[in-house]
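Hi V.,

You were right to ask for the full record rather than a summary. Here it is.
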Amino acid sequence: MRARRGFRASWLAGLLATALAGGAVAIGIEDVVDGGNNYAWQLVELPGTMCSNGSQYRFWYYDSPTSNHLLISFEGGGACWDYQTCSGQAGLLGAANPNG
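Predicted structure:
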């Protein structure tokens, strides 16, 4: 009976430690990642440019006050390699988010 009581106490202590550790990790993650994009991104639309579907070419940037690093992320679509693909004769290659 004594061994069983010791096992139960050890098991409950382990369960409590696991629960407390999980809560501490969740609090740390919430402090770093708030689940949304709350940064002020700047929209740039260059005059005289357009996408292959006729929409205005645009891109966004965010000037971080805490970093001097540069990250460029290219979205798929819009590339051409020869006359057929550049002129649209091969069909529109289309952007992944043409309105976005």
